[in-house]
Design brief:
2 domains; Rossmann fold; seven-stranded parallel beta sheet; 9 helices; five-stranded parallel beta sheet; alpha/beta; 322 residues
């Protein structure tokens, strides 16, 4: 069975990010998953990767991956593509992942498919990516005509499913070229993290919109999120107004999420916002306007004043939490 290269997303301690497990699940539909691990921590991650079906782990423990931006990862992948002839390369559809995908496609002369929400094998075994287009109003099935397909898969779009694999490690020697070192990391600062899950990886996301009325009104969104153990997001109108930080924007020009549960509170459902969340497994909408477009894609809807509905919802959630 042909290999499918999966670029692992992880931290320096070897903690595997959820999107890597989703990529492994998707890769199994196309062939034999082979993880590409950059930097330290592969030993600590081996059992986790094996749990989700990794047959092999190519380990390139080089300091170049920490000292420079995405170019070294693209070079490593290009070398492995030439040496191993995989059926496809899967990367996370994050900002860095999509840049890596683009650089890799240029290096190997292949097509690249970004923002995929599903990956399957066609009748002839060719990888097929499903991509939402025109703000998510249509979904297309795309293939690559030339070379090894490079596919960036949207985090949260595929549910991670365990399946035992060997995760046999194989050391790969790597040193970045001078060209890959043109842009380097000069300083690192730890991101501020609260007690909430990361927005891109959360299983539950609660987002607030213009209906919250202001920064003070938005606090009820945080309260609902905390009651559900959820990440908190915001619409573009909210972040543009300065009510909530921009890094929490969900939408076409913000972050794309695909959790198990998405709760949209006071969000009308403009196409810009829908493009960033409509692949969520279950969508709940709360809005006082019964004609709001968000209800067109919601699985469950509540028409009412969010400042009356949400406190009652929080109260009921807390009762069931015991």
């Amino acid at each position: 069975m042909a290999e499918v290269l999966v670029l692992a997303e992880h931290d320096s301690a070897g903690e595997v990010k959820k999107v890597t497990l989703e990529l492994l699940t998707a890769a199994r539909r196309l062939g034999e998953p082979a993880v590409v691990w950059t930097g330290p921590g592969a030993d600590a991650a081996q059992s986790r990767l094996a749990e989700y079906g990794a047959a092999k782990v190519y380990v390139a423990d080089s300091a170049d991956f920490a000292g420079y931006i995405v170019a070294p990862a693209a070079e490593l992948l290009a070398g492995l593509v030439r040496a191993k002839s995989p059926v496809a390369v899967l990367v996370a559809g994050t900002t860095e992942g999509k840049e890596t995908a683009g650089r890799l496609a240029v290096k190997i002369g292949s097509g690249v498919l970004t923002d995929a929400v599903n990956v399957t094998a066609g009748d002839d075994g060719t990888p097929v990516a499903e991509q939402p287009n025109f703000g998510g109003s249509i979904t297309v099935r795309s293939t690559v005509r030339t070379g090894t397909p490079v596919i960036a898969l949207r985090p949260g779009a595929v549910s991670a499913e365990p399946q035992a694999g060997a995760a046999a490690p194989e050391t790969v020697s790597f040193a970045a070229s001078d060209e890959a070192k043109l842009a380097r990391v000069t300083e690192r600062a730890p991101a501020e993290k609260g007690g909430r899950p990361d927005l891109a990886e959360a299983q539950i996301v609660v987002s607030g919109g213009r209906g919250t009325g202001g920064a003070d009104g938005f606090k009820v969104i945080e309260e609902l999120g905390d009651a559900l153990g959820a990440a908190v997001g915001a619409s573009r109108a909210v972040v543009d107004a300065g009510w909530y930080p921009h890094q929490f924007q969900v939408g076409q020009t913000g972050k794309t999420v695909s959790p198990q549960l998405y709760v949209a509170v006071g969000i009308s459902g403009a196409i810009q916002h829908r493009a960033g969340m409509q692949t969520s497994k279950t969508i709940v909408a709360i809005n006082k306007d019964a004609e709001a477009p968000i209800f067109d894609i919601a699985d469950y809807g509540m028409v009412g004043d969010l400042f009356q509905v949400v406190p009652q919802l929080i109260s009921e959630i807390n009762k069931h939490k015991g």
